[in-house]
């Protein structure tokens, strides 16, 4: 009787397909079991004999290099002893030589990789694929990332494709992006980042600490992270930021080489951080702010310097207003701040400014930005300035051989416009500006602003150090807080529009409209300039200027055309690696009253589309053909064209080298597709050439059994 009484495990089944369906983790392309915390999963244990009452059996879960019980990194779960560090185990049923166990991890367990082995008496059994991945759980009410709406969970956790909004406030463009959080090696890359973050086990329980660490690790600054930022226009030793269409290749390459991938700009950082957060189970969305301020001085003003032709100067300004900036919002309950600041939190992995000695940003409660509670952790002042700073315009003129600065306008409502994210369950833009700020001019906005100013500018508005101080008289009287546009005596108003479609190779036809509402005869000097600039606000070329004096009577308006010939810009456009915007700046001065007003508008070029031809549905593992068709409707040859295409669980990213496409020429590329997963899938395509950087499109297909 004696020898056979030693209980031994002969096998373990982690019941992967059943568990992953219940845990919404069946999408992960990985051999191991992936489960979410705070939710039961089942394990079938096979034994050499029947389990008896006197037998000792325990499941052991260890996390980290050297798991120990007293550190909480080794959990020893016995069916008869219910609770251990918030984990539970129970015997569901037993038959002759098998027992089915149910394990529920704590809803605030550290996320990461756990090693499982089974102890029976003195025997230890280590199964194959014994590593179990434990993630955050937005389906579990006890988890800090709990999200009540199923439609929102489907979008912010499970959707592996989406859009990132770019362009300018004047012309927003949706750029399709493949997040691909379920693709091969992506989860392993995220686990590697968790290890690299050196977060303690306790910090790994907290989505706020994890998201802050990930915002630092997605950029390569100071920690050998995923992506190296580059805004220089020279991308010879890497991939141009314009050439990515998703996060997958970036994270796979990083995981294989353990070296930063070259190169990223803000939408690439945000796309990758979105993938990482969704992959770890934290609801996440990409957020684009148009006319986003980068206020290095922390004084809520961004000074913009113009020459006397009205052209913007790069060299003088440390601060800048980016045409757009993309960061991420992650959803969680914050336990480290007062009540009322849970929900969406802004995090940003684009390396702009250091926070606590590292390039990281957030999580900053979006409600704290709206309410002006900018003293809360983390980095609320910086995010507040990004959406609320004022723009002050200065003209630099030589007076007796010295530079003098003249103020030609302040815009108080020109920063933080049309804040955008992809709508839940729909392929359209949702405007979430109201989540970040109260309506301009409302009582709440005024109160929020006064609150924010009390923390950011306790001494009132002091002139910033450096260039502009020469222009202002330094005195102790700090200016009162002016919230509205300064009302001009004449009701002077400027508008900038394009009068024809802005196609590369055509003349750029724009107009400056000057309006006056006061009765009387007015003489107005207009200075206008047109430049090409990067989305970061850095000017790349001056294309042309106008200077005119007009007479307006009473309430009236006049349109002044501004036209740029193709020769003035095509050479510059072809030689640049980045997508550029057309910047038009206008300065108006009313002679009789000395009223001054400055206005700028950025516009994007418009491009012909790519069409995708394929069936609307296809069967799993059955091949179908997908064709990409592009007709060059422009008046210029597109040189060195490349077509990048990718379809998650349909085909890997593929590049077609297309050479030069002459005006009027039609190009067609085909790819054979094999769908490997069910449901709605998307195919993304992007065309890049010397002249044009970003024509992209996407098309959905439904895969059935």
Automatic annotation (TrEMBL):
User: What EC number(s) has UniProt assigned to this enzyme?
Assistant: 2.3.2.13
Cofactor binding summary note? Binds 1 Ca(2+) ion per subunit.
In this record, what's one Pfam family?
Transglut_core
User: According to its UniProt record, which cofactors does this protein need?
Assistant: Ca(2+)
Q: Which residues form the Transglutaminase-like domain?
A: 258-351
Q: Which InterPro entries match?
A: Ig-like_fold, Ig_E-set, Papain-like_cys_pep_sf, Transglutaminase, Transglutaminase-like, Transglutaminase-like_sf, Transglutaminase_animal, Transglutaminase_AS
Catalytic residues, per the record, are 266, 325, 348
Q: Which residues bind Ca(2+)?
A: 388, 390, 440, 445
Q: Which Gene3D superfamilies match?
A: Immunoglobulins, Transglutaminase-like
List UniProt keywords, sorted A-Z: Acyltransferase, Calcium, Metal-binding, Transferase
What family is this protein classified in?
Belongs to the transglutaminase superfamily. Transglutaminase family.
The name this protein goes by in its record:
protein-glutamine gamma-glutamyltransferase
Lineage, uppermost ranks: Eukaryota, Metazoa, Chordata, Craniata, Vertebrata
């Amino acid at each position: 009787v004696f020898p056979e009484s030693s209980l031994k495990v002969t096998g373990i089944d982690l019941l992967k397909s059943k568990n992953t369906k219940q845990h919404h983790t069946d999408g992960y392309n990985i051999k191991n079991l992936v489960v979410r915390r705070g939710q039961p999963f089942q394990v079938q244990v096979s034994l050499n004999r029947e389990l008896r009452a006197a037998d000792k059996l325990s499941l052991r879960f260890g996390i980290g290099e050297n798991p120990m019980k007293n550190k909480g990194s080794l959990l020893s779960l016995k069916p008869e002893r219910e609770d251990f560090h918030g984990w539970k185990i129970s015997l569901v049923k037993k038959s002759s030589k098998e027992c089915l166990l149910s394990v529920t991890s704590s809803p605030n367990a550290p996320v990461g990789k756990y090693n499982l082995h089974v102890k029976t008496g003195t025997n230890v059994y280590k199964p194959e694929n014994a590593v179990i991945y434990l993630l955050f759980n937005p389906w579990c009410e006890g988890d800090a990332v709990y999200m009540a709406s199923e439609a929102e969970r489907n979008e912010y956790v499970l959707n592996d494709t989406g859009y990132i909004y770019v362009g300018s406030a004047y012309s927003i463009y949706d750029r399709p992006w493949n997040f691909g959080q379920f693709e091969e090696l992506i989860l392993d890359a995220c686990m590697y980042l968790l290890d690299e973050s050196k977060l303690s086990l306790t910090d790994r329980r907290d989505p706020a600490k994890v998201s802050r660490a990930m915002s630092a690790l997605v950029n390569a600054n100071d920690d050998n992270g995923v992506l190296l930022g580059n805004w220089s226009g020279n991308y010879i030793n890497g991939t141009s930021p314009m050439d990515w269409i998703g996060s997958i290749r970036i994270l796979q390459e990083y995981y294989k080489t353990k070296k930063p991938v070259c190169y990223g700009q803000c939408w690439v950082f945000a796309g990758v951080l979105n993938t990482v957060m969704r992959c770890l189970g934290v609801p996440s969305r990409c957020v684009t702010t148009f006319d986003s301020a980068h206020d290095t001085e922390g004084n809520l003003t961004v000074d913009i310097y113009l020459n006397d032709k009205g052209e913007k100067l790069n060299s003088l300004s440390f601060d800048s207003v980016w045409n757009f900036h993309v960061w991420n919002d992650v959803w969680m309950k914050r336990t480290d701040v007062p009540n009322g600041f849970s929900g969406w939190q802004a995090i940003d992995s684009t390396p702009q400014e250091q926070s606590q000695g590292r390039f990281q940003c957030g999580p900053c409660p979006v409600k704290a930005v709206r309410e002006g509670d900018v003293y809360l952790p983390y980095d609320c002042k910086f995010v507040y300035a990004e959406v609320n700073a004022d723009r002050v315009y200065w003209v630099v003129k030589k007076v007796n051989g010295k530079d003098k600065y003249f103020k030609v306008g302040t815009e108080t409502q020109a920063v933080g416009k049309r804040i955008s994210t992809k709508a839940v369950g729909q392929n359209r833009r949702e405007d979430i500006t109201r989540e970040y700020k109260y309506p301009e001019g409302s009582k709440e906005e005024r109160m929020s602003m006064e609150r924010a100013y009390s923390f950011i500018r306790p001494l009132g508005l002091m002139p910033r150090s450096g260039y502009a101080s020469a222009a202002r008289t330094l005195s102790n009287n700090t200016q009162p807080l002016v919230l509205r546009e300064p009302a001009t005596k004449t009701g002077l108003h400027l508008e900038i529009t394009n009068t024809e479609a802005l196609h590369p190779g055509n003349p750029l036809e724009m107009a400056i409209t000057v309006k006056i509402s006061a009765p009387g005869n007015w003489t107005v000097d207009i200075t206008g300039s047109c430049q090409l600039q990067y989305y970061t606000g850095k000017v790349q070329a001056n294309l042309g200027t106008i200077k005119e004096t007009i007479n307006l009577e009473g309430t009236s308006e006049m349109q002044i055309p501004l036209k740029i010939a193709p020769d003035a810009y095509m050479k510059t456009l072809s030689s640049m690696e980045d997508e550029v915007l057309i910047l038009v700046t206008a300065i108006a001065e009313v002679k009789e009253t000395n009223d001054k007003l400055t206005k700028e508008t950025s516009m994007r070029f418009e491009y012909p589309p790519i069409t995708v031809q394929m069936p609307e549905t296809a069967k799993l593992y059955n091949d179908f053909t997908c064709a990409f068709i592009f007709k060059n409707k422009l008046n210029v040859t597109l040189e060195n064209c490349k077509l990048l295409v990718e379809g998650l669980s349909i085909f890997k990213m593929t590049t077609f080298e297309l050479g030069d496409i002459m005006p009027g020429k039609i190009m067609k590329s085909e790819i054979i597709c094999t769908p490997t997963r069910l449901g709605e899938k998307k195919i993304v395509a992007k065309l890049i050439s010397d002249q044009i950087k970003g024509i992209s499109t996407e098309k959905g297909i439904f895969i059935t059994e």
